[in-house]
Design brief:
alpha+beta; two-stranded antiparallel ribbon; 2 strands
Length: 123
């Protein structure tokens, strides 16, 4: 069972969850594009090293945990109505995020296919 929950698979899963959160945040920005004073938000991903003491096996590498945090988009230009939502910037970010999300899904699916093949061939 440990094979299914290795550090790489856990990190991929966390990244998929984080890109899902970013998609929802960017969609909220687009939904509020015409709201005066609305401040655009984004998601920042920071890697946090997990403490290897808790139940780790000898020689096991320290894992990395991704911590997505919703933050105000500091780079967004301010419009005359006080809003910081720029439709073009938001659409570019949404497209980039979709690419990252799909890439993480494909990598995880590939890893699972390899495990499935190994299990099937091992019978």
């Amino acid at each position: 069972m440990q094979l299914l929950f290795d550090p790489t698979s856990r990190l991929l899963s966390q990244m998929i969850e984080g890109t899902g959160l970013r998609h929802r945040v960017l969609a909220a920005n687009l939904a509020n594009a015409e709201t005066p004073g609305y401040q655009a938000q984004d998601v920042r991903f920071s890697a946090i090293l997990e403490d290897a003491r808790g139940g780790g096996q000898a020689g096991e590498a320290t894992g990395v945990r991704m911590q997505p945090t919703v933050v105000q988009d500091a780079e967004a230009p301010v419009r005359r109505d006080g809003s910081t939502v720029d439709l073009d910037r938001q659409m570019v970010k949404l497209a980039q995020n979709t690419g990252w999300h799909n890439a993480m899904l494909q990598i995880l699916a590939g890893r699972l296919a390899i495990m499935r093949s190994a299990i099937k061939d091992g019978r």
